[in-house]
Structure formats: C-alpha cells, structure tokens
Amino acid sequence: MTLTHEQWAVLEPLVExxxxxxxxxxxxxRRTIGAILWRHDNxxxxxxxxxxxxxxxxxxxTFIRWSRLxxxxxxxxxxxxxxxxxxxxxxxxTSIRAHQKAAGAAKKGATxxxxxxxxxxxxxxxxxxxxxxxxxxxxxRAVAFSLTPGQAHELPQAIxxxxxxxxVPLWVVGDRGYSSHAFRxxxxxxxxxxxxxxxxxxxxxxxxxxxxxxxNRVERLWARLKEWRxxxxxxxxxxxxxxxxxxxxxxxxxxxx
Length: 257
What we know:
Blueprint: H1 5-18, H2 29-42, H3 56-68, H4 71-79, E1 88-98, H5 112-118, E2 122-124, E3 127-136, E4 142-149, H6 158-163, E5 171-173, H7 181-190, E6 193-195, H8 209-212, H9 216-225, H10 229-232, E7 233-234, H11 239-256
Parallel strand pairs: 1-5, 1-7, 5-6
Antiparallel strand pairs: 1-3, 2-3, 3-4
Helix pairs in contact: 1-4, 2-3, 3-11, 4-11
C-alpha cells in the first residue's frame, strides 16, 4: 500500500505518541512507516523494497525493534480510542500457514521444540503454521490477539482474550470450537451472555440465532486482515514480529472504519 497524505495525517500523531523517543528524532519517519506498510501489504522480502522507500535495513530494523518494544500494540490501543463496541464481542481463531523462511529463530538456550513453542509455530493437519485467535468488538474490529502453535486448540485462549476487553460485554459470540460448559459458566459469571452453539454430541443450549448470525462480522474481519499478504502467510521468525504485523494491520483497519 502507498501511504497517502490523508492517511499520514491521521497516522502520524498516533505513531509519535507510541514510538520510542531518542535524543535525535527520526529524519525519515514517514518514509520508514511507508516502507513497513509496503512490505507487509505485499509480503515481499525486506531486500525487495523499492528504492524510493529508503534503505531496506532501516525499515526492517525499525519494525523488528518496535515489535519487541510493543509499539505496534500501543498503536492499536490508541486507534481504539474511537470506542470499542461491547454490545456483542466475537471470538474466533484461524490457522496461518508459515512460510519456510519463518522457521529458524534463535534457539536462545532452548531445544528446537521449545523454540517452536515459544515462537508459536507447530504442525497440524493444515501444515506448519500458527493458530491466531482474536476478540473483536460489535462492529467487527480487532481488540486483541493471541498466538499459539498451529496444532493448539483455541478454547484456552478465550478467557485471556476476554480479559483484554475494557469492560464486560453484553454478548460473547463464538463458534462450536468454544463450546464448553466451563467457559459458558465463566461468561455468565462475568455478567455477559454466551451465544455459542453446542457440539453435535452435546445437549442443546440456548444460542439465539439473531445474535449468533452476526458472527460473520469477525469472519469479515479476517478477510480484511488477510488482504495483507504478511498476515495471510507468516513470514516472521519470531512471535513478537508476527504479532507486530497483526497489530499494525488491525490498527489500520480501525482507522479506515
């Protein structure tokens, strides 16, 4: 994507508010942010950045360092100041295939399986990849993400994601992957109402169709986020960098809507 004057006018104050501040301010901040957006939108190698986007290593180092510092997560939080809709919240997970270049992060004293667990990489029926879970607000905008290896189930991520909300929602909507009596009870104890259909081998439970049918909002969220090729396929070796891609894409989605 090309960063227009209008987009930069909205994005610049947010970036300035969340970026680390050194003694010498960055001289080409807009160009560097534009290069980062171009790379993740196209899923290209850092070295393939067009010359007009500036030195590739500058954009790469900035993105990776800011991911470790949580800058992109703070950017998403600032974008959410427009107001998170809590009439309905949606839980959903998706499997992201990892490119072969995503493997090989530094071991840092861990074994290869321990490294893959730390970097949220694992092998499932769909291949080598990462399971990404999201909680979205009533409009279908991402509030928070969690990463697990590709073979992991998404239900254990539900309670931590609910804790990321600023307040208790009215409804918590999820598909059959979140069907659990213990989880439904947790939602009721929070003061919210679950809209989660039972599995085929479970007894019927209340799941109002007029609420559950809105779950397409989180599915459309994934469709928008996966327009970024670096979201649709994981190229990042570390979990922190891939989370940075997700937070950046979600922040831009908030600013567009």
